[in-house]
Amino acid sequence: MDKKKGIYDEIARVAYELYEKRGRAHGHELEDWLEAERIVMERHERHAKEIEHGVDIIEKVKKGFRKTVKKGGRVYRD
After folding, report:
1. Which structural domain range is residue 70 located in?
2. Total tally of structural domains belonging to the chain
């Protein structure tokens, strides 16, 4: 799977989750899609920064959340 397809699929999944959280109310498709794009792109940017700054450990804390421990012991959460 190429990276563009993977990002598109991730945005679609997040947009659907937003739709479900809204109670499956129609008429907000564009709003949900744009919010999903923002969420996914922020995740990818954060991940790129973690890699750039030499993250030591990324561990899953609970569903949907990660705890990232950088060199020097600084803790970041998403």
Report:
1. 3-77
2. 1
